[in-house]
Specification:
- The protein has 309 residues and is α/β, with parallel strands linked by helices.
- It has two domains: 178 residues, FAD/NAD(P)-binding domain; 121 residues, 3-Layer(bba) Sandwich (FAD/NAD(P)-binding domain), CATH 3.50.50.60.
- It is 25% helix and 27% strand.
- The protein is built from seven helices and 19 strands.
- Strands 1, 2, 5, 6, 7, 8 and 19 form a seven-stranded mixed sheet that branches. Strands 10-17-11-12-13 form a five-stranded parallel sheet.
- A hairpin with a 2-residue loop joins β7 and β8.
- It is elongated, with a radius of gyration of 21 Å.
- The structure holds NADP nicotinamide-adenine-dinucleotide phosphate (NAP).
- The site of NADP nicotinamide-adenine-dinucleotide phosphate has 21 residues, from α5.
Length: 309
């Protein structure tokens, strides 16, 4: 079996940037694309805050460009999902389905996936009116009323985007203050199709027996009042959970599951680096993910160079 110089787990912004830098260092990186190729940028619409694109750029186009750029320098891409990693072995052993790969170094850029409320009725109706991806599923609710849950940038972005299809979007947030950046909040507020319900939580999604979303059972946290709010869909925009479970017990993570790194990208295992949203609970931007992907790649170069000597 060939021993790889570097394997990169994840094909979002951090993974592609790490691939570009390690490919240009002639390390012939192998990128394992994961369940959600392209990461969060692949599921978003217009990206207006990635420098270099004065008019903005569509997220999927940006990520495709990154992939092409890394491929041009020899990065290899492999469809697959990591099911097991043995970081105690040298070389490191990684298992994808029935396949095992050995590598001298590893860059974990597995990102974060959508968070759900955790209600059984929500789970039962995923794909039947419950979604975490406005760009994937918004179209199915043309002319209908939609609810978006959350108070951060993702929720604002989803609410604004969904007004393209929906007759009305109601943004439901558990507090009165919003975590979203001013510009995103103002944009949603200025949209005549977006209504706001604050201090409100979802207790149940109706109607599981009909296999479709007909209403949300809402509760006002201040008054305690509970009511059924008719809607055709519920889109979640309540943040993300880092994809690091496969490394549990081998790498340190914080209480929310983010991998703990020092000097930005170093894990406690030599030769294993982490970058992007899987280890960044503070910034979580496309540009910071790309930056940390670059740092991880430079650390891999240094690590392999030192190993050789
Ligand atoms: P976020 O900033 O962590 O916001 C999550 C929101 O969901 C918060 O308002 C939170 O409420 C709410 N929430 C969390 N768990 C909940 C639950 N169980 N029930 C009800 N509400 C819940 O996450 P995000 O909006 O996904 O943004 C993540 C990062 O990506 C941010 O740094 C953001 O700036 C960035 N981002 C940027 C853009 C852009 O600039 N174009 C677009 C999207 C995301 P509380 O406020 O009460 O905690």
């Amino acid at each position: 079996m060939d021993i790889r110089n570097v394997v990169i787990i994840g094909s979002g912004c951090a993974g592609h940037t790490a691939a570009l830098y390690t490919a240009r260092a002639n390390l012939k990186p192998l990128v394992i694309e994961g369940h959600e190729p392209g990461g969060q940028l692949g599921l978003t619409t217009l990206v207006e805050n990635f420098p270099g694109f004065p008019e903005g750029i569509q997220g999927p186009e940006l990520i495709e460009n990154m992939r092409k750029q890394a491929s041009r320098f020899g990065a290899e891409y492999h469809m697959g999902h990591l099911v097991k990693a043995d970081l105690s072995k040298r070389p490191i052993e990684l298992t994808f389905g029935k396949e095992t790969i050995q590598t001298r170094s590893l860059i974990i850029a597995s990102g974060a996936s959508a968070r759900w409320l955790g209600l059984p009725s929500e789970h039962a109706l995923i794909g039947h009116g419950v979604s975490s991806c406005a760009t994937c599923d918004g179209f199915f609710f043309s002319g209908k009323e939609i609810a978006v849950i959350g108070g951060g940038d993702s929720a604002m972005e989803e609410a604004t985007f969904l007004t393209r299809f929906a007759s009305k979007v109601t943004l439901i947030h558990r507090r009165e203050e919003f975590r979203a950046s001013k510009i995103m909040l103002e944009r949603a507020r200025a949209n005549p199709k977006v209504a706001f319900l604050t201090d409100t939580v979802v207790d149940e999604v109706l109607d599981v027996s009909k296999k479709e979303v007909t209403a949300l059972r809402l509760r006002n946290l201040k008054s305690g009042e509970s009511w059924d709010f008719p809607t055709s869909a519920m889109f979640l925009g309540i943040g993300h959970v880092p994809n690091a479970k496969v490394f549990a017990g081998q790498l340190d993570s914080d209480a929310d599951g983010y991998l703990v790194t020092k000097n930005n990208v170093m894990t406690k295992v030599p030769g294993v680096f982490a970058c992007g949203d899987v280890q960044d609970r503070r910034y979580r931007q496309a540009i910071t993910a790309a930056g940390s992907g670059c740092m991880a790649a430079l650390e891999v170069e240094k690590f392999l160079g030192e190993e050789r000597h």
